[in-house]
Recover the amino acids of this structure.
Protein backbone atom coordinates (compact mmCIF):
# COMPACT_ATOMS: atom_id res chain seq x y z
CA UNK A 1 0.00 0.00 0.00
CA UNK A 2 1.17 3.50 -0.78
CA UNK A 3 1.04 5.92 2.12
CA UNK A 4 -0.85 9.08 1.38
CA UNK A 5 1.08 12.13 2.63
CA UNK A 6 -0.83 14.16 5.15
CA UNK A 7 -0.56 17.88 4.46
CA UNK A 8 1.06 19.77 7.25
CA UNK A 9 -1.20 22.03 9.18
CA UNK A 10 -0.17 25.66 8.83
CA UNK A 11 0.33 27.34 12.15
CA UNK A 12 -0.95 30.90 12.00
CA UNK A 13 1.47 33.64 12.97
CA UNK A 14 1.08 34.68 16.53
CA UNK A 15 -0.12 38.27 16.92
CA UNK A 16 2.63 40.70 17.76
CA UNK A 17 2.98 41.37 21.42
CA UNK A 18 1.66 44.90 22.15
CA UNK A 19 4.57 45.44 24.52
CA UNK A 20 7.01 44.76 21.67
CA UNK A 21 5.17 47.18 19.40
CA UNK A 22 5.30 49.87 22.06
CA UNK A 23 9.00 49.17 22.57
CA UNK A 24 9.58 49.79 18.86
CA UNK A 25 7.78 53.12 19.12
CA UNK A 26 9.42 54.09 22.39
CA UNK A 27 12.49 55.71 20.79
CA UNK A 28 10.18 58.23 19.11
CA UNK A 29 9.79 60.18 22.29
CA UNK A 30 9.88 63.96 22.67
CA UNK A 31 13.67 64.18 22.29
CA UNK A 32 13.86 62.17 19.08
CA UNK A 33 10.82 63.94 17.62
CA UNK A 34 12.23 67.34 18.46
CA UNK A 35 15.59 66.46 16.89
CA UNK A 36 13.84 65.22 13.76
CA UNK A 37 11.99 68.54 13.41
CA UNK A 38 15.23 70.42 14.02
CA UNK A 39 17.03 68.38 11.34
CA UNK A 40 14.25 69.14 8.90
CA UNK A 41 14.55 72.89 9.57
CA UNK A 42 18.33 72.75 9.20
CA UNK A 43 18.00 70.86 5.92
CA UNK A 44 15.67 73.52 4.52
CA UNK A 45 18.07 76.28 5.62
CA UNK A 46 21.00 74.44 4.02
CA UNK A 47 19.23 74.38 0.68
CA UNK A 48 18.69 78.16 0.89
CA UNK A 49 22.03 79.03 2.51
CA UNK A 50 23.10 81.81 0.08
CA UNK A 51 19.72 83.55 0.47
CA UNK A 52 19.95 83.14 4.25
CA UNK A 53 23.42 84.75 4.33
CA UNK A 54 22.27 87.65 2.18
CA UNK A 55 19.37 88.31 4.54
CA UNK A 56 21.35 88.29 7.78
CA UNK A 57 24.75 89.67 6.80
CA UNK A 58 23.90 92.63 4.58
CA UNK A 59 23.06 95.15 7.31
CA UNK A 60 26.03 94.42 9.65
CA UNK A 61 28.35 94.24 6.63
CA UNK A 62 27.44 97.74 5.44
CA UNK A 63 27.59 99.15 8.96
CA UNK A 64 31.08 97.68 9.31
CA UNK A 65 32.16 98.97 5.91
CA UNK A 66 30.80 102.52 6.32
CA UNK A 67 31.63 103.13 9.98
CA UNK A 68 34.76 100.99 10.27
CA UNK A 69 36.35 101.59 6.87
CA UNK A 70 34.97 104.59 5.00
CA UNK A 71 34.53 107.07 7.87
CA UNK A 72 37.87 106.06 9.40
CA UNK A 73 39.78 106.59 6.16
CA UNK A 74 38.00 109.91 5.55
CA UNK A 75 39.04 111.08 9.02
CA UNK A 76 35.51 111.38 10.44
CA UNK A 77 36.08 108.47 12.84
CA UNK A 78 39.12 108.04 15.04
CA UNK A 79 41.75 105.43 14.14
CA UNK A 80 41.10 102.31 16.14
CA UNK A 81 37.34 102.77 16.08
CA UNK A 82 37.03 99.30 14.56
CA UNK A 83 38.17 97.93 17.95
CA UNK A 84 34.95 99.36 19.38
CA UNK A 85 32.71 98.63 16.40
CA UNK A 86 33.50 95.04 15.42
CA UNK A 87 32.47 93.25 18.66
CA UNK A 88 29.25 95.26 18.69
CA UNK A 89 28.40 94.25 15.14
CA UNK A 90 28.99 90.58 15.97
CA UNK A 91 26.47 91.01 18.79
CA UNK A 92 24.13 92.83 16.41
CA UNK A 93 24.27 89.98 13.88
CA UNK A 94 23.59 87.37 16.58
CA UNK A 95 20.69 89.16 18.26
CA UNK A 96 18.93 90.46 15.14
CA UNK A 97 19.20 87.17 13.25
CA UNK A 98 17.82 85.27 16.22
CA UNK A 99 14.94 87.72 16.55
CA UNK A 100 14.01 87.69 12.86
CA UNK A 101 14.40 83.91 12.52
CA UNK A 102 11.80 83.37 15.24
CA UNK A 103 9.32 86.24 14.91
CA UNK A 104 8.58 86.24 11.19
CA UNK A 105 8.09 82.45 10.77
CA UNK A 106 5.83 82.35 13.83
CA UNK A 107 3.63 85.15 12.53
CA UNK A 108 3.25 83.35 9.20
CA UNK A 109 2.68 79.91 10.71
CA UNK A 110 0.12 81.09 13.25
CA UNK A 111 -1.89 83.15 10.76
CA UNK A 112 -1.48 82.51 7.04
CA UNK A 113 -0.05 79.02 6.49
CA UNK A 114 -1.17 77.34 9.76
CA UNK A 115 1.94 75.17 9.44
CA UNK A 116 2.32 75.32 13.19
CA UNK A 117 -0.62 72.91 13.52
CA UNK A 118 1.48 70.08 12.02
CA UNK A 119 4.17 70.64 14.64
CA UNK A 120 1.63 70.82 17.46
CA UNK A 121 0.25 67.43 16.39
CA UNK A 122 3.69 65.83 16.79
CA UNK A 123 4.32 63.76 19.95
CA UNK A 124 5.84 66.76 21.71
CA UNK A 125 4.73 68.99 24.58
CA UNK A 126 3.56 72.38 23.33
CA UNK A 127 6.44 74.09 25.11
CA UNK A 128 8.95 71.83 23.37
CA UNK A 129 7.75 73.10 19.98
CA UNK A 130 8.55 76.64 21.13
CA UNK A 131 11.96 75.56 22.44
CA UNK A 132 12.77 73.96 19.07
CA UNK A 133 11.89 77.23 17.35
CA UNK A 134 14.21 79.15 19.68
CA UNK A 135 17.08 76.66 19.32
CA UNK A 136 16.81 76.65 15.53
CA UNK A 137 16.75 80.46 15.37
CA UNK A 138 19.75 80.62 17.70
CA UNK A 139 21.70 78.23 15.47
CA UNK A 140 21.01 80.46 12.46
CA UNK A 141 22.09 83.47 14.51
CA UNK A 142 25.36 81.81 15.54
CA UNK A 143 26.14 81.12 11.88
CA UNK A 144 25.47 84.78 11.03
CA UNK A 145 27.74 85.94 13.87
CA UNK A 146 30.50 83.50 12.83
CA UNK A 147 30.43 84.77 9.25
CA UNK A 148 31.16 88.28 10.56
CA UNK A 149 34.71 87.23 11.49
CA UNK A 150 35.98 86.50 7.94
CA UNK A 151 33.97 89.48 6.69
CA UNK A 152 35.66 91.68 9.30
CA UNK A 153 39.13 90.46 8.29
CA UNK A 154 38.28 91.06 4.63
CA UNK A 155 37.01 94.62 5.15
CA UNK A 156 39.20 95.85 8.01
CA UNK A 157 42.35 93.80 7.41
CA UNK A 158 42.41 92.69 11.06
CA UNK A 159 39.96 92.33 13.90
CA UNK A 160 40.30 92.56 17.69
CA UNK A 161 40.88 89.08 19.07
CA UNK A 162 42.14 87.45 22.25
CA UNK A 163 42.87 83.73 21.84
CA UNK A 164 42.67 83.21 25.61
CA UNK A 165 39.02 84.29 25.67
CA UNK A 166 37.86 82.38 22.58
CA UNK A 167 35.65 79.99 24.56
CA UNK A 168 34.00 82.85 26.44
CA UNK A 169 33.38 84.66 23.12
CA UNK A 170 31.57 81.57 21.82
CA UNK A 171 29.45 81.33 24.97
CA UNK A 172 28.52 85.03 24.86
CA UNK A 173 27.65 84.79 21.16
CA UNK A 174 25.38 81.80 21.80
CA UNK A 175 23.80 83.68 24.69
CA UNK A 176 23.15 86.66 22.41
CA UNK A 177 21.63 84.39 19.78
CA UNK A 178 19.29 82.86 22.38
CA UNK A 179 18.34 86.33 23.64
CA UNK A 180 17.39 87.43 20.14
CA UNK A 181 15.40 84.23 19.54
CA UNK A 182 13.54 84.69 22.83
CA UNK A 183 12.64 88.27 21.88
CA UNK A 184 11.43 86.97 18.53
CA UNK A 185 9.28 84.39 20.34
CA UNK A 186 7.54 87.22 22.18
CA UNK A 187 6.99 89.31 19.05
CA UNK A 188 5.81 86.33 17.02
CA UNK A 189 3.18 85.30 19.56
CA UNK A 190 1.94 88.59 21.04
CA UNK A 191 1.86 90.86 17.98
CA UNK A 192 -1.14 90.54 15.62
CA UNK A 193 -0.17 89.59 12.03
CA UNK A 194 -1.54 92.83 10.56
CA UNK A 195 0.74 94.89 12.82
CA UNK A 196 4.00 92.98 12.56
CA UNK A 197 5.51 95.36 9.97
CA UNK A 198 4.81 98.41 12.13
CA UNK A 199 6.07 96.60 15.22
CA UNK A 200 9.33 95.64 13.50
CA UNK A 201 9.87 99.26 12.49
CA UNK A 202 9.23 100.41 16.05
CA UNK A 203 11.36 97.70 17.68
CA UNK A 204 14.34 97.08 15.40
CA UNK A 205 15.60 100.66 15.04
CA UNK A 206 15.72 101.38 18.80
CA UNK A 207 17.14 97.91 19.39
CA UNK A 208 19.99 98.54 16.94
CA UNK A 209 20.92 102.04 18.09
CA UNK A 210 20.50 101.60 21.86
CA UNK A 211 22.31 98.24 22.02
CA UNK A 212 25.82 99.69 22.40
CA UNK A 213 26.91 98.08 19.13
CA UNK A 214 28.50 101.31 17.82
CA UNK A 215 29.79 102.76 21.11
CA UNK A 216 31.01 101.60 24.54
CA UNK A 217 28.31 101.92 27.17
CA UNK A 218 30.54 103.61 29.82
CA UNK A 219 31.29 106.44 27.36
CA UNK A 220 27.67 107.61 27.68
CA UNK A 221 28.22 108.95 31.20
CA UNK A 222 27.74 112.53 29.92
CA UNK A 223 24.41 111.60 28.29
CA UNK A 224 22.88 110.01 31.34
CA UNK A 225 19.34 109.52 30.02
CA UNK A 226 20.58 107.69 26.93
CA UNK A 227 22.88 105.57 29.06
CA UNK A 228 19.87 104.49 31.13
CA UNK A 229 17.89 103.67 27.97
CA UNK A 230 20.80 101.63 26.62
CA UNK A 231 21.08 99.75 29.93
CA UNK A 232 17.50 98.52 29.43
CA UNK A 233 18.37 96.93 26.07
CA UNK A 234 19.41 93.25 26.42
CA UNK A 235 21.71 93.56 23.41
CA UNK A 236 23.85 96.06 25.34
CA UNK A 237 25.18 93.29 27.56
CA UNK A 238 26.02 91.07 24.60
CA UNK A 239 27.85 93.95 22.86
CA UNK A 240 29.70 94.95 26.02
CA UNK A 241 30.50 91.34 26.93
CA UNK A 242 32.04 90.66 23.52
CA UNK A 243 33.85 93.99 23.62
CA UNK A 244 35.40 93.18 26.97
CA UNK A 245 36.47 89.74 25.76
CA UNK A 246 37.79 90.76 22.33
CA UNK A 247 39.13 94.27 23.02
CA UNK A 248 39.75 94.55 26.77
CA UNK A 249 41.55 97.87 26.31
CA UNK A 250 38.28 99.56 25.32
CA UNK A 251 36.07 100.85 28.20
CA UNK A 252 33.29 98.31 28.83
CA UNK A 253 30.96 96.89 31.43
CA UNK A 254 32.61 94.15 33.47
CA UNK A 255 32.25 90.83 31.67
CA UNK A 256 30.78 88.90 34.60
CA UNK A 257 28.02 91.51 34.93
CA UNK A 258 27.24 91.09 31.22
CA UNK A 259 26.91 87.33 31.62
CA UNK A 260 24.69 87.58 34.70
CA UNK A 261 22.35 90.21 33.26
CA UNK A 262 22.13 88.48 29.87
CA UNK A 263 21.20 85.16 31.53
CA UNK A 264 18.61 86.95 33.67
CA UNK A 265 17.09 88.61 30.60
CA UNK A 266 17.04 85.25 28.80
CA UNK A 267 15.10 83.57 31.60
CA UNK A 268 12.52 86.37 31.75
CA UNK A 269 12.10 86.59 27.98
CA UNK A 270 11.73 82.82 27.62
CA UNK A 271 9.05 82.67 30.35
CA UNK A 272 7.06 85.46 28.69
CA UNK A 273 7.57 84.01 25.20
CA UNK A 274 6.55 80.49 26.28
CA UNK A 275 3.39 81.89 27.86
CA UNK A 276 2.53 83.69 24.64
CA UNK A 277 3.26 80.62 22.52
CA UNK A 278 1.09 78.32 24.64
CA UNK A 279 -1.73 80.89 24.62
CA UNK A 280 -1.64 81.12 20.80
CA UNK A 281 -1.32 77.35 20.37
CA UNK A 282 -4.30 76.57 22.60
CA UNK A 283 -6.34 79.43 21.19
Amino acid sequence: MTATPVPATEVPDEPEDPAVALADLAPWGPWRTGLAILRRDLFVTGREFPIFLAQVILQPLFLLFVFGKVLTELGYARPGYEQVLFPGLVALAAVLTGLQSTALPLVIEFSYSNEIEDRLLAPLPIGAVAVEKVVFAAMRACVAAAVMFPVGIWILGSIPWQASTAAAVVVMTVLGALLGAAMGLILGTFVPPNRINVTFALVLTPLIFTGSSQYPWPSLSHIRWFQVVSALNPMTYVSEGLRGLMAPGVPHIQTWICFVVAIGYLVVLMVVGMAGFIRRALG
Observations:
- Confidence is low (pLDDT under 50) at residues 18-26.
- The two ends are 82 Å apart (CA to CA).
- Residues 81-111 form the longest helix (31 residues).
